[in-house]
Amino acid sequence: MLEVGFQLYNEMLSEAVRSLKAGREPDLLSPLSVTTDINLHAPALLPNDYCGDVHLRLSFYKKLATAKTADQVDALLEEIVDRFGKLPAQAQTLIDVHRLRVISAPFGVIKVDATPGVTLITFRPNPPVEPMAIIGLIQKNKHIKLAGNEKLRIERALPEVKDRVQLVRDVLRSLGTPLKAPQPAPP
């Protein structure tokens, strides 16, 4: 507990208890569920001149990082705008990163790397996506290719961050509804 801090220790303990209650072995090597890594290749932060109080900024970062739904991210966005006014570009990118994180997770996306020229969307093995939806997406769009078993490569010049965000949203939307994971049989 001294190594990781009280808060993280509690989260790790809660995750282990949830795993045991669900009849699964707790994963002690990666104890917290991995979040989706989103890189839009643009600054994503609350600037000092926008939100001057460092403790308040850290509080917002933590709330955004732990948001589980787009509605929670939107509620935080509303709170930030109410307190500090119109978002600067870096803060809008921060909100976009967390929105993409929560909408990507149900599709089994573990990483989005969106540069101005190429966007890579990496899925975990056996993602909860209909394989025919991915095949259909690739067949309909010449700029989208499969790069390995778990990665989509989208070659499109999009210098604006908002356009890269919209591209990822559109690709995920075109994959349909994520499949439900099979529930373990009760003992």
Neighbour order of strands in the largest sheet: 1-2-3-5-4
Strand composition percent = 5-15%
CATH topology of the largest domain: Aspartate Aminotransferase, domain 1
Looking at CATH, the homologous superfamily of the largest domain is Transcription-repair-coupling factor, D7 domain
Q: Helices and strands, in N-to-C order? A: HEHHHEEHEEH
Distance between the termini: 33 Å
Structural class: alpha+beta
Principal-axes shape call? flat
Major sheet details: 5 strands, mixed
Share in helix: 40-55%
Number of strands: 5
**Please, what is the average pLDDT?**
87
- Helical segment tally? 6
> Roughly how many Å is the radius of gyration?
19 Å
**What is the count of distinct domains?**
2
**CATH structural architecture of the largest domain:** Alpha-Beta Complex
Low-pLDDT stretches are 182-187
Oligomeric nature of the chains: single chain
